[in-house]
Amino acid sequence: MMQSVADLPLWAALLVAFFLLLGAVLTLIGSIGLLRLPTFYERLHAPTLGTSWGVGGTMLASAIYFSIASTRPVLHEILIGVFVTVTTPITFMLLARAALHRDRVEQNEAVPEKAHSPRADDLAENRDD
């Protein structure tokens, strides 16, 4: 049987509120970083930190609240935290590699084809002899 929010002890309500606000603030900072930073590579870093630590704060608040409200340990939030902790860096790395590959392809397309240098023409003539 779950207790109502009004029956939650003061220390637990303060702890839940603290972690919930911490998670929300960290997520907000990550979102602002996504909007404000100038380059893609800089913008990529802020949301990953906001995701990891923001979800961590929210997850802790949820685990504390439901553990106290249901009078039994509720630990399935830890699975969410593990999943986010594992997938966020992988997503970060894949996005960075894709952007790096895109930048290299665009850079190679922007460079005009090299004309035959006199040295290369001389080598080709010497092979015919």
Automatic annotation (TrEMBL):
Sequence intervals crossing the membrane: 12-37, 49-68, 74-96
Coiled coil (residue ranges): none
Keywords assigned: Membrane, Transmembrane, Transmembrane helix
Chain segments carrying region Disordered: 107-129
Xref: InterPro entries: PhaG_MnhG_YufB
Record-linked NCBIfam families: CPA3_mnhG_phaG
The protein's name in its UniProt record: Monovalent cation/H(+) antiporter subunit G
Organism field: Rhizobium helianthi
